[in-house]
Amino acid sequence: MLIRKPADHLPSDITSESVYFNRRAFMLGAAGLLLSAETLAGLNAKKSPLSQLAANDKPNSLKDITSYNNFYEFGTDKSDPAQNAGSLKTRPWSVLVDGEVAKPRRFAIEDLLKFPLEERVYRLRCVEGWSMVIPWVGFPLASLLKQMNPTSRAKYVSFETLQRPSEMPGQRTSVLEWPYREGLRIDEAMHPLTILAVGLYGNVLPNQNGAPIRLVVPWKYGFKSIKSIVRIRLQETMPATSWNLANAHEYGFYSNVNPEVDHPRWSQASERRIGEFFKRKTLPFNGYAEQVAGLYRGMDLRKNY
């Protein structure tokens, strides 16, 4: 994992993918920066003390990240999102934050882009057994939720994806119950590793990767990181989630990466990093155990999968 925070000035150009690999001081975003529909501006930043956690993880190529996707709103094949997501209109866009909060509010995407942005290089582990390393741009979800003044009854956070079948052809099928829904416990949502991503690799977030704003929770299987969010609701009860509704036996609410708990139809002990031939061992909590294992102290992670 790599976390970098913003500095005080902007360079004039976007950093290309090739330059990115050679200049690890790259950073994106700044407080008050408004992202256009075409590009993000970049800036230099100091390394976080956590940056060494990803020292041996080279990010996947932009092509890998944008052409091999699960986003069932655009189809079930890995190539479908890249082929079909161009129809999605991401402006205007807003996100409603409500529920057990003192200050419910609807945020225009331009308001959310004013949060100080950080580069986060995270591992992504899919429940299907493949993985990537992705340089996201975003901000901690906690920084948004704290502004809402959650009440004492806010125990969980639910998320909802846009439902617009005219632009999301996969929603014209019954492969899942629409709109797509996900959820976290409040302490998971408030954890500093949990972010709302608005870009990757120096550009605005591509539609197939969840534009214009998505969740990223790096210690959980990828389907927990819901895309194209339009609603965030704080609530007292555990929210229903799409894959749990579809098949609770295979997809639990927590869905933490755990190599010791197999999927009913395949092992989770190893994974194939996209772009590599040989498999590698899967790490507990996707390699973030030191940071997040304490959230589950005393829990049976085989039962609470």
From TrEMBL:
Its cofactor is Mo-molybdopterin. Mo-molybdopterin binds at residues 69, 72-73, 126, 161, 209, 214, 225-227. It catalyses: L-methionyl-[protein] + a quinone + H2O = L-methionyl-(R)-S-oxide-[protein] + a quinol; L-methionyl-[protein] + a quinone + H2O = L-methionyl-(S)-S-oxide-[protein] + a quinol. Part of the MsrPQ system that repairs oxidized periplasmic proteins containing methionine sulfoxide residues (Met-O), using respiratory chain electrons. Thus protects these proteins from oxidative-stress damage caused by reactive species of oxygen and chlorine generated by the host defense mechanisms. MsrPQ is essential for the maintenance of envelope integrity under bleach stress, rescuing a wide series of structurally unrelated periplasmic proteins from methionine oxidation. Belongs to the MsrP family. Its EC number is 1.8.5.-. Keywords: Metal-binding, Molybdenum, Oxidoreductase, Signal. This is Protein-methionine-sulfoxide reductase catalytic subunit MsrP. Heterodimer of a catalytic subunit (MsrP) and a heme-binding subunit (MsrQ). It comes from Chromobacterium amazonense. Residues 89-243 form the Oxidoreductase molybdopterin-binding domain. The gene is msrP. SUPFAM superfamilies: Oxidoreductase molybdopterin-binding domain. One of its GO terms (molecular function) is oxidoreductase activity. Binds 1 Mo-molybdopterin (Mo-MPT) cofactor per subunit.
